[in-house]
Design goal:
One of its GO terms (molecular function) is metal ion binding. It holds the Pfam family MDMPI_N. This is Mycothiol-dependent maleylpyruvate isomerase metal-binding domain-containing protein. By secondary structure, the protein is an alpha+beta fold. It is built from 8 helices and 7 strands; from the N terminus they run αββαααααββββαβα. It has helices at about 5-25, 40-60, 85-105, 120-140, 150-170, 175, 225-230, 245-255; strands spanning about 30-35, 35-40, 185-190, 195-200, 205-210, 215-220, 240-245. The strands form 2 sheets. The chain has a 5-stranded mixed β-sheet with strand order 5-4-3-6-7. The chain has a two-stranded antiparallel ribbon with strand order 1-2. A hairpin with a 5-residue loop joins strand 3 (about 185-190) and strand 4.
Length: about 260
Amino acid sequence: MVMLSYERHCAEIVNQASLLASSLDGSDLGVQVPSCPDWTVNQLVRHVGFAVRWADEMIRSRSPEIPFDRNNAMNVSSYAGEKAATLGPWLVEGAASLSAALEAVSPDEMIAVLAGHPGPRVWSRRMTHELVMHRWDAENALGVPFELDPEVASDTLIEWTAMALPYAFQRWPEQTQPLVGPGHTVHLHATDADVELVIDLTAEKPVVREGHEKAAVALRGPVVELVLAVYRRRPVEGLEVFGDRELLAELLERVRF
């Protein structure tokens, strides 16, 4: 399977921010974002820009723990009437600063540690895909065509199984408990990229395996469409579904990130 390198993640943080910034040109940033209905486009950009700056601060300060109280990414309701000429460069500036901070440290340095994993490696990947998904949100709201390199999309899908899936089980155990059961397995199969993942839900904690195997339900389609489906940005209609549709629907309903 294609998994992006640390260096590629650092580069994609800037690339995805630049693509998002360019999509804002000439648009009304005050329109609501259907996939994030509490925010307008400019508030969405502020959200992801603040997230990037929070990660930058963690890496630059070499904080051993994650200072959640310094994350202002959810405090965006007061922002209104902003223009692309101001907001785009602000976003790219923050992304470039984070990328430079990440490049200046070892990817396996134990700073901003998350679930026992080295922060630079985790946050380089997390911020890449934070930007990917919120770029889709903004471009969808503005009617701008969304395009994504299949290699990046493959990594986004893999990261969803590595981050969003266990996070949901840890944070919302009562919500995710109904997903656990004998024979509960879900196969994600990209038709245009070398990505096949099996989510095993037969025990208390989900286990993800690479490769092709029979599962209770399989979801097949282009890798970008699989990413949009697991992130609840599109319905599964139009993709190939084989087997237990109810289990798939429950998984996508209960695993939120």
